[in-house]
Predict the structure.
Amino acid sequence: MTLHEHERIVSADKIEIKPVFEDRYKKILGDRYAEFMEFSMSYLRKCVRVNTLKISIPDLKARLEKKGWVLEQVPWCKEGFFVQGHEEMDRFDIGNLPEHALGYFYVQEAASMLPPTVLFSDIKENDADYFKELKVLDLCAAPGSKTTQIAQYMKNEGVLIANDVDISRLRPLTMNLQRIGVKNMLITLNAFQYSKNNGKPRNPFGEEKEFFDRILVDAPCSGTGTIRRSFKALTMYSPGLIRRLVATQKTLIKHAFNMLKPGGTMVYSTCTQEPAENEAIVSFLLNQFDNAEILPIDLDIKRTPAITEFEDLDIRPETKDCLRIYPQDNDTEGFFVCKIRKNA
């Protein structure tokens, strides 16, 4: 038994689960619904990611273990470690350590590390020259967990655009980028919407200009994979919310693909389990662009097969190569990740 499991189950007595949520998620998960809710009502494992811009993985691991922290490797991210707790004290407040203030590590959920890992999974570590001319966009960047992860993979080379739509979110984004020591970024505040006058998309980086080599679209979503972090996803859930989010997600993924260079790679990800926000959005992109191709994701992770049929949703069979994980698969948050290439 690991240290975090002594208080695994959170009392659900006072948590209201809407009938519309229960009905839909029983359809989505089938006989795995009870297991999904059990994990969704349990405490989430603490996890950290080593910031290799400031310290090596062995050095930080040695520093933390010397102080009594018990760490376990995240299988799909070599910089990631589950924090099992402290070997002498019942504590998990690793974010209060000086190493955190110094930017030696970032407190980040393990499944959240997947999108940047997938975005750069085809790059070899010794291919340093590749990053010097690289242009990368993190379209929905705040508060910066994935942005800082991208920056460390880029080794502070090239150009990283960290964009968000909400000015109030730029402050934590800026603070996190500074603490981690990111030097190759530009922060932008842009909403990717359609013009009310002519119905054309407004692109602040140029009119449909193919500018970026790699793009991450970690889209705003209903967050049903993050219930164990916050019950807000349960209280806010509604079909109307899903419809509004789907409209935004379609706009974002279409804009991102238009800004991607031929031969470039993008990742679309969410922390929801909704097929309407995941496989159906990717299928929308494939229907819009003949040169969009889904790439397989090969990681050391337990996964649930992608949903290729659900109700009346238009889902393409190619979405079988998307990565879908439920909280019970790896004792993490639930996540969805798709890797897409823009063919010439």
In short: The two ends are 51 Å apart (CA to CA). DSSP finds eleven helices and twelve strands in the chain. The mean pLDDT is 91.
